[in-house]
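Objective 1b of the project was to move from sequence-level analysis to a structural picture of ligand recognition. The entry below was assembled by the postdoctoral researcher (A.K.) and checked by the PI before modelling. It contains the amino acid sequence of the target and the SMILES of the bound compound, pyridoxal-5'-phosphate.
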Amino acid sequence: MKWKEQLLNLTPYQPGKSIDQVKKEYSLDKIVKLASNENPFGCSEKVLFTMNQSPSFFALYPDGYASELRSVLAGHLSIQEDQLIFGNGSDEIIQMISRALLSPETNTVMAAPTFPQYRHNAVIEGAQIREIPLVNGEHDLDGMLAAIDENTAVVWVCNPNNPTGNYIKEPALLSFLHKVPRDVLVVLDEAYYEYVVAEDYCNSLDLIQKYENLIVLRTFSKIYGLASLRVGYGIADPQTIKALEPVREPFNVNKFAQASAAAAIEDQNFIEECRRKNREGLEQFYAFCEEYGLEYYPSQGNFILINFNADSNEVFQFLLEKGFIVRSGKALGFQGYVRVTVGSKEQNDGVLDAMGQYLAKQAAAL
Ligand SMILES: *Cc1c(COP(=O)(O)O)cnc(C)c1O
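Corresponding predicted holo structure:
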């Protein structure tokens, strides 16, 4: 068959191991998954009513325009309703942007390593990919600017960056946006926006008014704890949203997702509580790294990338057998490192204890 040539070398996304898989494989009864930056505290109780519905709720298509969610979210963000586009996760918005703008005649600029879906979708569209290495875990914005030419269609900026957790300070981001040509779309992926506490982090919504070529991506999968329902959104100038809308599938965000996300927004106490506990959790990891002399990237997200100076897969495997699923840095472009989602205090204590055991074993082997 006549598959696109670029698909032949593309592997589907490899998700982290599931809890059930690991339970079976290692005969463990308690597994803690700290691999996909999900919220260890679940979601707001206020969303639970959305699951208890009558048969007619199931039978009817969802509102393709997500009107209720749109109205609640626009109010929450103090923006206009026509500045929003919704996706089946922000993953789908990344796909829509790629579909709308990328082709074999274009190129696209991104950091490396960063969130892999930018590259993945660009490959599918046959665009040329220009990856600019991170410098000390941070985007090399000048390098990215230098890579832009007349065929560049999209520039991807992940802030805070996954997998490093680094963020871009406001002046640097402002100067970057000022210099990007106005016919190049800048995608600012803020999947971890609600976790950020840095004071010089940019309030990107103020920039939407100024830059028609900027789209900000956020999600309900991370701090809102609704990853299973798949709902993310883009915020941009109404003209940009309008240009993107035709590539969106008519009923792309399901009814449960729309209702749950709208309810979740109303419980900002839950969000604040999660942000606070996440900070406390990060402090546990920082203290551990300092005690053992491990390098790490200070994080504005709900995860931390730690350098074990060892085979990442071996650390991963050791932790797995103790019942903790983390991400091996190897698959993320950081050989020697492990990325761990910040869990509850008890989960963090557990994984740090297991990490301590790994380091003790390694020291004993020397
Ligand atoms: C998790 C994540 C996403 C995907 O979120 P969904 O809304 O669940 O598709 C997007 N970007 C980054 C950087 C992420 O870490």
